[in-house]
Design a protein that fits this description.
Largest sheet: 5 strands, parallel
Shape: elongated
Order of helices and strands: HHHEEEHEHE
Structural class: alpha/beta
Strand order of the largest sheet: 1-5-4-2-3
Distance between the termini: 76 Å
Radius of gyration: 21 Å
Number of helices: 5
Helix content: 40-55%
Strand content: 5-15%
Number of strands: 5
Length: 137
């Protein structure tokens, strides 16, 4: 008992550190480690969709508008979220994307912005994620 009292601060530090390690290990917002698996839709082109193919991917589509110049098609049951790419992982934005039951479609005039955001969101484990392509060519 004297040993426990003697080393109570050391033991408290070990317990706190162990709790932090467990929280970090089981936190769902961390990035996935199998990057090849998560990047496969990008390589095969499965993540790119045109406006004509939007009805085929399902209902409850969430359009994430990454800049003010992007025009999304009007669809019944779809919702839009306008956010700057730098604020995407902050606060409510990521939770709104995670809570969406349907597919998530990224829209930006600059395809490289949509592609970078797609990679970040897919690495966090969000599935059914698409990039809206403006022209079918």
């Amino acid at each position: 008992m004297k040993t426990i009292i003697r080393y109570k601060y050391v033991l408290a530090g070990v317990v706190v550190l162990s709790a932090l390690v467990l929280i970090r290990a089981f936190y769902p917002g961390t990035f996935r480690y199998d990057a090849v698996k998560w990047a496969e839709p990008s390589v095969t082109g499965e993540n790119i969709i045109t406006a004509e193919k939007l009805p085929a991917i399902g209902d409850d589509i969430l359009f994430v508008i990454l800049d003010s110049d992007c025009q999304v098609p009007e669809m019944a049951g779809s919702v839009s979220l306008t956010v700057a790419p730098g604020d995407l992982l902050a606060g409510d934005n990521l939770s709104k994307i995670r809570k969406n039951k349907g597919p998530v479609v990224l829209c930006s005039e600059d395809v490289s912005v949509s592609s970078r955001v797609w990679m970040i969101l897919s690495e966090t484990g969000i599935s059914r994620l698409y990039i809206l392509k403006k022209d079918p060519a």
